[in-house]
Amino acid sequence: MATRAFDYQILAQTGRTFRLERLPLSSFVAPLALLALWQLACLTGLFPPQVLVPPSGVAKALADMTASGELQRHVGDSLQRLLIGFVIGALAGMAFGATIALSQLAEAAFSPTFLTLWQVPVIAFVPMMVMFLGIDEPFKVAVVAIASFFPMALATFDGIRGVPRNWFEVAKIYRLRLFQLIRRILLPATVPAILTGLRISLTRAWVVLVAAELLAADSGIGQMMEMGRQLFQIDVVLAGVIVSGLIGFLLDRGARWIESRASRWRTA
Amino acid sequence: MNGWLARFPVRAAIGLVVPALLILWWHWRTSAQIATFAPPAAVGRALAELLHSGDLLRDTLSTLKRAFAGLAIGAPLGVAAGVAMGIWRPVDRTLGPLLHALRQVPMIGWLPLMGLWFGVGEGTELIVISMSAFFPSMLNSHAGVAQVERRYLDVGSILRFNTAQRIRFILLPAAMPLVLTGITQALAFSWIATIGTELLTGAGSGLGVAMSQAQVQQRLDVMLVVIAVTAALGFLINQIFRRLRQSLLRWQPSVQ
């Protein structure tokens, strides 16, 4: 199947050179020095507090928002949207990918439409979805679902097409039924590809969700940052940047961890 | 195997069934009087209207200009940072963790902060687009330089290459496939970031601006035209760059 620049295989590789657990102590020097410099610049009054609050100010904003429960509400809302949309999008993507991989007729019928739609950046669907769905929950869940659908469908398709032909012949000899074929052969053989697809779907869905929340939302991390910007609360905006980065990082790490655990038996 | 399915006319015909059904359904829905649904024919009219008024051309050009300006700033910086991190360990040690930490934030998530610092406008958009181009270029160039084969470097030291020569004659050619992969990715990222920032800031002209205006005016026909143009351009740019990459790398035996 043709690919575009956002090739999920390429995406799967990015960041592989970086391992947190292998970092020597010296690697913390630069970030810490930057933090110290930042704090110093604010304390000496080089930057007025409207322009840059010191790290301690951001920490205080985070602590205040945690104490009031505001931060938990925003994070909770964002993660809930992410989870619901991701489950819907990833399941649909898997089902679709499996269908067009297993049936030549389905591939011929659906893949041109699929590949055409795939050329559209998910974010470009956002205004149209606002038109149809408004700016409430269904809209945000739908954005996440669409963002997860495409990489998942492709990963599943490639995973199943990558299964050697003679495994299917073995299945034929054993007269496996479709359900058994899926359970015994397709699932185990495609687990690595599907997990990679899940990770890419998840991290991309997060990016798109933050953008959608920036554009139109009443809660969530993106909305928190956008409100902070409108009210000139630079500490809130910086806190939002840190929290959204942290969540993205943890989602990616978590998924990578599951990926390495689940496909360990393959190389062993 | 299903031989008749492999024939091109048959495949193409089957591939057209789904879009045709979708358009039929869409046409039927609009006849059933749903306010925001523009009929398929209206999209054609909107396209003609936008082409005639020159709006589409203007928006397309400013989006392209933005995306390539961001790429022109972000990609060279990214390649330079990646190569520097690949060659000098101290740079990697000091700059690496910082850049990797910054990379975790969704790029569009920088918009509110940059908006506060630099005002909502052209400059802020350019910064965010450049950042989106920076990171993929950096990551791939770093990986490309880091995985250069040891024996090439050994030859370099036998020939007593200085640092500049080593970069010019060994590291860059060897890292070139990944560097170009990085730039291809940077292109896709900056294209998406451009549409995203235009949507969010909505300043001046651009395809994203046109989309958000179409949303406010409830013009589905205009919206669909703009989305189609966005998709087609993204596809086209990417194809051109892939060809370019292949011809730049034709001296490499392993390139497909």
TrEMBL record, chain A:
The keyword Transmembrane helix applies. InterPro entries: MetI-like, MetI-like_sf. One of its GO terms (biological process) is alkanesulfonate transmembrane transport. Gene3D superfamilies: MetI-like. SUPFAM superfamilies: MetI-like (SSF161098). It is a multi-pass membrane protein. GO terms for cellular component: plasma membrane. CDD domains: TM_PBP2. It is found in: Cell membrane. Pfam families: BPD_transp_1 (PF00528). Keywords: Cell membrane, Membrane, Transmembrane, Transmembrane helix, Transport. Residues 75-255 form the ABC transmembrane type-1 domain. The chain crosses the membrane at residues 25-47, 82-102, 114-135, 141-164, 185-211, 231-251. Belongs to the binding-protein-dependent transport system permease family. Probably part of an ABC transporter complex. Probably responsible for the translocation of the substrate across the membrane. This is ABC transmembrane type-1 domain-containing protein. It comes from Sphingobium baderi LL03.
From TrEMBL, chain B:
Residues 60-241 form the ABC transmembrane type-1 domain. It comes from the Bacteria. It is found in: Cell membrane. One of its GO terms (biological process) is transmembrane transport. It is a multi-pass membrane protein. Belongs to the binding-protein-dependent transport system permease family. This is Sulfonate transport system permease protein. The lineage of its organism: Bacteria, Pseudomonadati, Pseudomonadota, Alphaproteobacteria, Sphingomonadales.
